[in-house]
Amino acid sequence: xxEKYITKIIENEQSVKSAHHRIDKIExxxxxxxxxxxxxxxxxxxxxxxxxxxxDMNSRLKVVEEKPAKNWETxxxxxxxxxxxxxxxxxxxxILK
Length: 97
Fold this sequence. Notes:
Number of helices: 1
Low-confidence stretches: none
Distance between the termini: 141 Å
Order of helices and strands: H
Number of strands: 0
Structural class: mainly alpha
Radius of gyration: 42 Å
Helix content: over 70%
Mean pLDDT: 91
Largest sheet: none
Strand content: under 5%
């Protein structure tokens, strides 16, 4: 019967060693997953900052793009006002003659 117990003890020791090896591997994997999680959080923060920068640049670009259109509108208004004023002045001059 002693041999039976010795065999069981040896089997248990081998099983414990195997379990320790698996636990060591799992601890390593968990550490790598933790590092990966931290890296993903950092990437998310950088992406958010980049998105905010792009939104700011889009706002400034929109202002720059709209400026020539506003200038053109101002020129057209000035020309039309001048023509209208000239015609009105010419009409009044003809009426007063």
